[in-house]
Design goal:
heterodimer, A: mainly alpha, 14 helices, 2 strands, 3% strand, B: 438 residues, D-Maltodextrin-Binding Protein, domain 2, 2 domains, 6-stranded mixed beta sheet, 4-stranded mixed beta sheet, globular, transmembrane (chain A), transport (chain A)
Amino acid sequence: MHRVLGDRKAVLILLGPALLVYSLIMLVPMVWSFGYSFTEGNTVEGFTGNGLDNFQRLFSDPAVRDALWFTAKYAVVVTVGQVVAGYLLALLYVFFLKRASALVRTLVFFPVVLPTVAVGLLFQKFFQVAPQTGPVNSLLNAVGLDSVDWFGSAGHAFWVLIVMDIWRSMGFYAVLLFAGLVDIPEEVLESARLDGASGLRLVRHIVLPMSFPVLMSSVIFSINGTLKVFDSIVALTNGGPGSGTTPLTLYMFQTSFTYGDYGYGSTIALLLTVVCLLVTLVVFRVSRRDPTEG
Amino acid sequence: MITSSTSARRSRLAGSTASAAALVVLVSACGGTGGGSASAPDNFSYLSVTENTTVKTALTTLSKGECKTAQDGLPLKVETVPQASLDQKLQLLAGQDALPVQFAAGNAPALTQQLYKSGKVADLEAKLTSLGVFDQLEPAAVSTIKALYGGKVEVLPYEYNIEGIFYNKKIFSANGLSVPGTWSELVAAAAKLEAKGIQPFSASGQQGWPLTRLISGYLYRSLGPDALQAVADGKAKLTDPAYVKAAQEVAALGKKGYFGKGVGSIDYDTSMNEFLSGKAGMLYMGSWALANIADEKQNKVGADNVGFMPFPAVEGGKGSIEQYPSNVGLGITLGAKSFDKKTGAWVSCIAKNYGSTALKDQGAISGFKVNTPVENSNEVTGQVRETISASKQNVLWFEALFSTKATTVSQSNAAGLVAGSLSPEKFMRTVQDALAEK
């Protein structure tokens, strides 16, 4: 093995194709897009350089501020929701359902394999108020409350989105964290139990620290996914009402492809990249701390 | 042994080199400018929106009848996208030089003009004149097109619409209502219907434009036919009190619940269906709805029970109810590069026959001359046709002179305006801000 990896030619052959594909479909467009952020125009009109105008506009554009705030709010709430729900489910699988968890695991995982658009439509029908009253509003009516126009205000639509995205992805995080939990050696748990740790104390002092790496991976995974959320919002609210549920990704998409301003769209994409990078760095920094100390 | 492993390695290397090369070719092919817009098209490809079925149906009919020869030379191929995704699709296709032969030219005339300026759209006045069929276009339709597209004929008048309020005659007479002539009479009629438990208006908040049309309707009646040209020219702002007043009036209708529940979730078909099934008393719509009204499968209230009234006057306003908002529907245009002899054959045939075919089969009025006399399928179609031929001055619609961004902003926020989550002042300011961007 060492001989193979020591051979430069072998390394080149092994890495070359992957690197080529990666460069072509990831790095080249990224550099390209960075270049576009100093221009204005689109593929119809052609591009002209405009220096730092796009960056100036980025800092003074209230729509960017709103979209950034929405993205942050959404990412935090959904990440916490996904990981906490996933972790609780994983604990349920490992400590409560044990070997019988396969069926529940499959059922909870099921929404992960459904297409986002289908889930979006499902939730639209679920929460709709017109032309037919959806199940949620029917339930509200049944207990004597008035129907709510869930997609009529940004506040309500936000919570429908949150519920949908947590429901859609908690099964995935549950399986991911389940893999981390089953890795904890039975002997460690056993000896902790002998020392009198049980229930919450066992989770807090033994299970949590020992599954910390996989928990951190989940958080990084989740926050990066949620910062770049696009499909579920397009499917459910399309950024509406107005621009009430428009994240940076959707604003970028609209700016580039609907309003035909590729340059400014690229600048927004750059902002999103920087945000993702910063958040990942922070999460890495935090995760370097050893949780078993203190 | 050694030989075979070396040759295996060599062949693997060759394999990976080949796949890498294939990938490079593939990627460069995607990014190339060759695209699908060859100068000689294989099909009379037509990209339109899912929501519009009239043109698609009429063209298919023509391809089997009057335009059979053109069809044999260049077969018709229809593709549709949801209207909300049309602009994106066009931008991407235009970027790859892959625009179809004929296509819906964008939700805002601004995009069509952009395409025209970059040479992607044919100069239809010149093309039709050289084909000898420019006289097949109704002069009124040509003047509307020129008003919209900076003096050029950039689209074909597959539709020629006037807009107004369709109302359910049965509901009106059962509730002792006469056709409202003024805005306050309209509001009073709506109040009366609401009190009787009938939803006064049906409107699609998801589309947004059926709501913003009410704002422009009010503006044209209160401030006169130049109200929105003044905004486009920078002489007035949407945030001026007289303009905000229009948004306030429309928001007030929403506040009173006249559009029903969850207006933001109502799509175009649902709103049409609500009206045609007798659940709502009035529908602001263009005359393209005549096709739906004439269709017995869709229209449960019966075509004879549908009436048409102009947008009512505003007391003390400068506009007149004679000035109908008019448009040519979703502009449909032809690519400049793919306009060859075979395409020309199609266009000539369409210009000569589309008007009568669309009117006869679907009750749809276009801006093409009706060369074979067609009887009106119902009273309201006759009324609209007479109104069109008698109309002397037309106005445009709210977003007609807006940029693509301002159009989207206006239409996507309209539901919020009538649902009360966005104040009239904030709505007009948001749209004005989007307009102020270049």
